[in-house]
Structure to design on (408 residues):
């Protein structure tokens, strides 16, 4: 690959991406544009601007953007229409943020005339795949630079030495071994590494940032109502909220009640297993609510087919194929199923659990007349079930008769 002339870097303002910024300048002699996304990670982003300026980036080449609404509306909500869960447990909080970051990297590259983008993902993880598959899907000619796969800064000591040599500010708490690494956005927090690397050892309590210990959560349950339209949550307790504001509110409610903690050993796309501590308070409540409203508004055949498609959909998101035709095909089918997924769900939040306790909808398929144990006034003729059973039993009876004949 020829040396890039101008690179758009996904920049957090932290030590690693600051080192990457300087490394790009010294290694390639190129101009660097920084992009810092506010995805609801809960950190002040102004220091990232000051850090970039300190490292010689021109003000017009510093992009700091609040993309929380786009993140929830166009990425989180479509994924939750699918009830996507990876390996039965993980709500894909890190995975779903990467295609949006890549989208903006590619767009900013086009806006600024840059010929390359760069990210700070390591060569061991999933994020390198997610960033790069998304970038290539959006611009097949873009160059992607992954410094962790190129440089010789293979230890924390070497990184700190490089920082000191190039006068990159180092926070005091970075001089020692960091206890663990954290990735956060409005959907979740993800903690990995160091004190969490041995899956046989309990995660220390200080790892958790968004949720109280369920044992310390309020002793009284809290009941909330979530309104849905076309598969997306639109209100909490009757108050209409934008996608990002709704998820923010659910995070507050779920976190207060200790909901959404997960200690998971997962199979990475690159082949190894890793242990992560995830907190998805609002997402856990949202998934339960969405399942709750689908129970009365979604036909059995559509619901069961969705559940068959879901693991494939979740795997595509996890592996970085958000912009693939197969994910888009699945999304079209899933979105079609959501036209009548509207109504209200009441949930009980209590000491680590979110449980549906009631649901109602003008689009409901539930017919009390058909299921009642009282007089159904002719809504259902129970005698019809006899023929239904006989037809379904026919092949089983033929199989049993054959087996009995052969044994005899």
């Amino acid at each position: 690959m020829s040396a890039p002339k101008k690179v758009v870097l996904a920049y957090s303002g932290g030590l690693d991406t600051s080192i990457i910024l300087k490394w790009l300048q010294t290694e390639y002699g190129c101009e660097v544009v920084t992009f810092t996304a506010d995805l609801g990670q809960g950190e002040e982003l102004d220091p990232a601007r000051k850090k970039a300026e300190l490292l010689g980036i021109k003000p017009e080449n510093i992009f700091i953007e609040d993309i929380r609404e786009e993140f929830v509306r166009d990425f989180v909500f479509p994924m939750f229409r699918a009830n996507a869960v990876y390996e039965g447990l993980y709500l894909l909080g890190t995975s779903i943020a990467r295609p949006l970051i890549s989208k903006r990297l590619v767009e900013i590259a086009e806006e600024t005339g840059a010929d390359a983008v760069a990210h700070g993902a390591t060569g061991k993880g999933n994020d390198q795949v997610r960033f790069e598959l998304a970038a290539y899907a959006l611009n097949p000619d873009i160059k992607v630079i992954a410094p962790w796969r190129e440089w010789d800064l293979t230890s924390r000591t070497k990184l700190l030495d490089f920082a000191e040599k190039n006068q990159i500010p180092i926070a005091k708490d970075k001089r020692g071994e960091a206890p663990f690494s954290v990735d956060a956005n409005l959907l979740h927090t993800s903690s990995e590494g160091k004190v969490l690397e041995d899956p046989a050892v309990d995660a220390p309590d200080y790892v958790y940032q968004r949720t109280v210990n369920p044992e310390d959560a309020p002793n009284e349950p809290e009941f909330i109502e979530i309104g849905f339209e076309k598969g997306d949550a639109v209100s909490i307790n009757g108050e209409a909220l934008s996608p990002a504001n709704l998820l923010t509110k659910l995070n507050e409610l779920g976190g207060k009640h200790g909901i959404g903690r997960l200690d998971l050993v997962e199979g990475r796309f690159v082949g190894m297993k890793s242990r992560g501590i995830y907190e998805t308070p609002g997402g856990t409540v949202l998934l339960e609510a969405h399942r709750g409203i689908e129970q009365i508004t979604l036909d059995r055949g559509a619901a069961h087919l969705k559940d068959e498609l879901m693991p494939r959909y979740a795997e595509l998101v996890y592996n970085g194929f958000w912009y693939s035709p197969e994910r888009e095909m699945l999304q079209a089918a899933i979105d079609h199923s959501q036209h009548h997924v509207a109504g209200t769900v009441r949930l009980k939040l209590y000491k680590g659990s979110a449980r549906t306790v009631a649901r109602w909808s003008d689009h409901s398929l539930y017919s009390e007349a058909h299921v009642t144990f009282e007089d159904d006034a002719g809504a259902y003729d129970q005698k019809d079930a006899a023929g239904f059973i006989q037809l379904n039993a026919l092949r089983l009876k033929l199989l049993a008769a054959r087996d009995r004949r052969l044994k005899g």
Q: What stands out?
A: The first helix runs from residue 15 to 28.
